[in-house]
Design brief:
Helix content is 72%, strand content 3%. By secondary structure, the chain is mainly α. The strands form two sheets. A two-stranded antiparallel ribbon has the order 1-2. A two-stranded antiparallel sheet has the order 3-4. Helix 6 runs antiparallel to helix 7. The radius of gyration is 22 Å and the shape is globular.
């Protein structure tokens, strides 16, 4: 179990945050292409995601099988429940591929946190959430420039209508920070912190279980409680994995919607 180790003398070794979040290199140590356990988990998530959709949709049938139905249900949920609902069909079609990819990418990265032998989310370190947030940042700026034009997009973002002219001295800097800095930063931090905290709680719960049950060889009351807590947190993390993917896709769509709002 990740985060738990036993010293040579059989003593309990508490989980170490540095070892958990910054594990030693597995491949290409000391190079820009260094791969550690967290990077490997991310690569596995991407490969599995690609395989699932390839197998599900490579030969679509009129009467779909179970995997095809599941994949189509997921895409339909994102399309109708998020993208078309907020952007409309005409504009939504343009950004649907990106948001579908974003939703399932975040979801599969999150699910690695409760996957046996992987045991850590690919989003539990800030790097991947930051990359995803930057991609969304580029997407909503691109959408605003493409749909309403660069000057109109900046005017709508920085000079909201209905505000007294003198107030723009205060409002415009705030809108600049909120739109172009706070949005991507908060998007990354929300995903990262949710998955990081969940991972640490799981490590603590199952580490305590290993100590009380594995090391003391007794199903003590405390050991049972920590094991039950770990199982409960696993279910919570499963819910969080789905919820955070939904929230990330929803906020991305919302930012695009605000960027193209003059088009509606």
């Amino acid at each position: 179990m990740t985060g738990i180790a036993v010293r040579a003398g059989g003593d309990f070794h508490a989980p170490n945050v540095d070892e958990e979040l910054f594990p030693p290199a597995l491949l290409f140590d000391g190079t820009p292409f260094e791969i550690n356990r967290v990077v490997m988990v991310r690569l596995i998530a991407v490969v599995v995601l690609m395989l699932v959709f390839y197998i599900a949709l490579r030969k679509p049938k009129v009467v779909p099988g179970k995997l095809q139905s599941l994949a189509e249900m997921g895409v339909t949920f994102v399309r109708d429940g998020i993208v078309y609902d907020m952007l409309g069909e005409r504009i939504g079609k343009k950004y649907l591929p990106y948001i579908v990819t974003l939703f399932f990418g975040v979801l599969f990265m999150n699910l690695t946190g409760v996957t046996p032998f992987l045991n850590i989310s690919g989003n539990a370190l800030i790097g991947m959430p930051l990359v995803l947030a930057i991609a969304t940042y580029i997407a909503f700026i691109y959408a605003g420039i493409r749909e309403v034009g660069g000057l109109k997009f900046l005017k709508a973002a920085l000079f909201p209508p209905g505000v007294p002219i003198v107030m723009y001295v205060l409002i415009t800097p705030l809108e600049l920070v909120n739109t172009f800095i706070v949005r991507p930063v908060s998007l990354a931090l929300r995903l990262f912190l949710n998955l990081l905290v969940g991972h640490l709680l799981l490590v603590l719960a199952f580490s305590a279980t290993w100590f009380f049950v594995g090391m003391l060889n007794a199903w003590s009351a405390i050991g049972i409680i920590t094991f039950a807590g770990g199982m409960f947190m696993t279910l919570i993390e499963l819910l969080v994995a789905v919820l955070q993917a939904y929230v990330f896709a929803l906020l991305t769509t919302s930012y695009i919607q605000m960027a193209v709002s003059e088009e509606h």
